[in-house]
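We recall that each integer encodes one residue's backbone shape. We quote one record:
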Amino acid sequence: MIVTEDKIGTLPISDYDKGLLKALLIDLEEINHNLPLKASNISIDWIDIHNEYSPERVDPCPDYYGYYRLWQGNKTLGVEMDLETLDYALAVLSDIFAND
């Protein structure tokens, strides 16, 4: 599910995390504003499905339910992240695309 300000209230996360996520969306708006013209906007995706367990797997099957991903167009940027890692990733993007 792509995270927007009106969808934050539906997420099963704490009020503190909802506040942080709202702040991250504001940062993301600024990042998108400063992206080069040919680049598509970046969005935050909340993973709302559980990975299916396959009986053929011998290693543990990771489940990223409740994690976040960054999307640009139709591709993933980076890996699945918790909220703290997402905050760090957006801080790096903000430094790269800051409008001085």
